[in-house]
């Protein structure tokens, strides 16, 4: 009578050593980034980026039916041993690392606390500004960058994907004095504003992890991607100390636009309280740069040739007006945006 051989104990390895088709691995990892994926106000999965002691990362997912088992055991910064998991195909639009597979939890996946995980890990995924400007990166794999914040724009509210959201442009520079625009959506912009206001450092270094490379009119920048992106301000470690030491010694001062506080100014306050009122003659004669409120009567409008063009407020691509039908209810003028592939009402004149 034959007996089945007992399963072999899992072998402790690094992330680079694991391969699909073999479930007998054991990893020692830390949760670098964790977020929940929502659909119709329901959490359908927990998404994570795990990293081992060498700094290698792998994406991990917990499906909806297993969330209650593991949700209370995992959070950012928690280190643990994990075994009895599987590797599945990882081919989403934005991948958090180059591996074509990700780690998925079973109901029987075993995680146990780890008390001796390194406090400092090397970052293998940092890219140079020159590489980004060259346009060599595709958007299938997200990247990391490090830069000094030299300018913080105004926090603006725009209409995107059916709802109001915040947008903030931040200018970063590297040790060669090359600049890079980082566009932050949602609450990411508020993170920058809060840190800059709370820390009056002459030099603020920011690491943007899991950023998407963007391109507009041949100029490349970066942007956050949903909830996957991570911002780290003034990080410790030898690499970042070295970065600070190589920054230009020009004593540049971090500049900020009006509206940095993120508070929305009403039209009433904008017109009658915040800005001084002047006549057109006074504005033409003033030597002071600033915002002024004036009252004027439109005498005529030049329509040909048109001195402006209309763009989408979200993607800033040219849009075209949609002709209204006589029976349509009165409402805002609609424009067709080819880039966003939808009709929009929020537009800008350029």
From TrEMBL:
Chain ranges of the Replication protein A 70 kDa DNA-binding subunit B/D first OB fold domain: 14-114
One Gene Ontology MF term: DNA binding
Alphabetical keyword list: DNA-binding
Domain Replication protein A OB: 138-218
Superkingdom per UniProt: Eukaryota
Cited InterPro entries: NA-bd_OB-fold, REPA_OB_2, RFA1B/D_OB_1st
UniProt cross-references to PANTHER family, sorted A to Z: OS03G0429900 PROTEIN
Name under which the protein is recorded: DUF223 domain-containing protein
Organism (species): Brassica carinata
């Amino acid at each position: 009578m034959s007996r089945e051989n007992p399963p072999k104990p899992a072998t402790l390895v690094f992330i680079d050593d694991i391969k699909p088709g073999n479930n007998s691995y054991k990893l020692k990892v830390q949760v670098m980034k964790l977020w929940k994926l929502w659909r119709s106000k329901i959490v359908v999965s927990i998404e994570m980026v795990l990293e081992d002691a060498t700094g290698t990362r792998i994406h991990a997912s917990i499906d909806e039916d297993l969330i209650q088992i593991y949700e209370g055991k995992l959070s950012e910064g928690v280190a643990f041993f994990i075994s009895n998991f599987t590797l599945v195909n990882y081919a989403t639009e934005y991948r958090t690392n180059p591996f074509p597979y990700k780690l998925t939890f079973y109901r029987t996946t075993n995680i146990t606390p780890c008390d001796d995980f390194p406090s400092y890990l090397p970052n293998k995924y940092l890219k140079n500004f020159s590489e980004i400007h060259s346009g060599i990166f595709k958007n299938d794999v997200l990247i990391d960058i490090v830069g000094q914040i030299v300018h913080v724009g105004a926090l603006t509210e725009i209409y995107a994907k059916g709802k109001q959201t915040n947008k903030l442009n931040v200018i970063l520079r590297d040790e060669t004095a090359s600049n890079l625009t980082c566009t932050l959506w949602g609450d990411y912009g508020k993170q920058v504003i809060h840190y800059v206001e709370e820390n009056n450092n002459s030099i603020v270094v920011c690491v943007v992890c899991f950023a998407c490379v963007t391109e507009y009119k041949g100029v490349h920048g970066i942007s956050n991607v949903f909830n996957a992106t991570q911002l780290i301000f003034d990080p410790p470690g030898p690499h970042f100390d070295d970065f600070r030491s190589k920054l230009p010694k020009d004593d540049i001062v971090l500049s900020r636009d009006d509206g940095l506080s993120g508070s929305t100014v009403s039209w009433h306050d904008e017109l009658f309280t915040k800005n001084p009122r002047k006549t057109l003659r006074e504005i033409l004669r003033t030597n002071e740069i600033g915002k002024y409120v004036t009252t004027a009567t439109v005498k005529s409008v030049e329509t040909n040739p048109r001195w402006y063009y209309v763009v989408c407020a979200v993607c800033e691509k040219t849009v075209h007006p949609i002709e209204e039908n006589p029976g349509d209810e009165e409402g805002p003028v609609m424009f067709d945006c080819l880039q966003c592939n939808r009709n929009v009402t929020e537009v800008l004149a350029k």
